[in-house]
Each structure stands twice: as structure tokens, then as C-alpha cells.
Amino acid sequence: MPTVKHATLLLVSLLMSTSVYAQSSASGMSHHGSGASHMSGDMKHEEMKHGDMKHESANASKMPFDHQFLDTMSMHHAHGIQMAQLAQERATHDELKQMAKKMHDDQQEDIKKMQAMKEQWYAGKGDAMNMQMPGMKESLQSHDKNMEKLKAAKDEQFDTMFVAMMSKHHTDGRKMANAALKKAEHQDVKEMAKKIADSQKKDNAEMAAMQKEWKQAKK
Ligand SMILES: [Cu+2]
């Protein structure tokens, strides 16, 4: 399926744009290693340089809403994946590690599907990442700083910080998903938005329950 392959390349370019890619084991990514040479696709690389990531595509707000949603949520998810990847290595609680793996895989799967939809309806139309979408401005802007803080966190402090950050990340994601439930033109996009809103709500409830148990165990 060429669309999925394309989507995977986009994901790789999203992940490669940050330092966590270089520092993590990049598990599951290495088999796409040859991708970089033909990564001429949608994501302009100069927009994606380390540190000063520009999360805005030119004229994004003039693009169709669904196009904006697919690209902006993909970027949001790519950030979630980076956090989850770190937690798979660094979490001290096993149940959090397992959950991080699930969040990583879920979001990767969503990105593939969203980028396949983008190919189907908006091929050749460029990128439409729009930071003005609900919940996104703060979420996308704070990502690099959050990653630095997470990397510096020690032991159990990492777990608590991760839960706080991922919960916030999911809450912001749900704001955009809820907007898509109302505004999306394509039924497939609405269904994806519903799936994201539901699964992130469930994740947040699970993380809150975990944290409660950790606190009680300490008493
Ligand atoms: Cu997301």
C-alpha cells in the first residue's frame, strides 16, 4: 500500500526532526533507514530543524478543515510518540512502561491512517499544520521544553512528570478531536476524531488510577 509507506516516511521525518530521535534507540524506525534519500514528500525539512521547530504550515488556515486536522493531529501525535518512547525506556513502574508502549503504538497507527486519508483527498496540496486549532498552540509550543524536563527527571519523578505531561497532552488533543467531531467534512475523519477522543480519555483515566496507587503505596 503506497499511501501507508508515504505516511511512514512522513512520520520518520517528524521524528527525525528532534533530538530524541538521535538519543533514543529509535526502535522500529531503523528498517525505514533508506527513507531519507527519497523523502521529498510533503514535510519541508527546513521547517523541521532542531529546537526551533516551526509548527505552522504557510496558509494552513485557508486549507480545508479536514486537511488541517489530519496534519495537525499527526504532528501532535508525533510529539506524544516521542514522550511515550522515552517512557518505555525510563519509567520506573512496569505498568507505566506497558502503557507507554500502547500509547506509542496507538498513535503511530493513527498517524498512518490519517496520512493515508490525506493522500486520498489532499495529495499534492502540501501541509496544513495549524497551531490555531483548539488546544494546539500551547501543546505544540511547550513540547521541546517538556521533553528536556522529562529527560532530566530522575527515577520515580519521571513517572509522575510523564503522567502529568501526557495527561495534559491528551486533554489538548481531545479539544481538537472534539472540534473535528463537529466540523469535519468526511465521515472517516469524524470516526478517527471519535476514536482519538475516546482512547485518550481512557488513557487519562488509567494514568490517574496508576498515580493514585503509587501515592497510596507510599503511605
Ligand atoms: Cu495527539
UniProtKB/TrEMBL annotation:
Q: Which keywords label this protein?
A: Signal
Sequence ranges of Basic and acidic residues compositional bias: 193-205
Question: Is Nucleus found in the keyword set?
Answer: no
| Top-level lineage group | Bacteria
Chain residue ranges for the region called Disordered: 193-219
Q: Does the keyword Signal apply?
A: yes
The residues the entry assigns to the signal sequence are 1-22
Q: Please state every residue range assigned to the domain named DUF305.
A: 66-210
The family database entries (Gene3D superfamilies) matched by this protein are listed as: 1.20.1260.10
Membrane-traversing stretches:
none
Q: What is this protein called?
A: DUF305 domain-containing protein
Annotated source species: Keguizhuia sedimenti
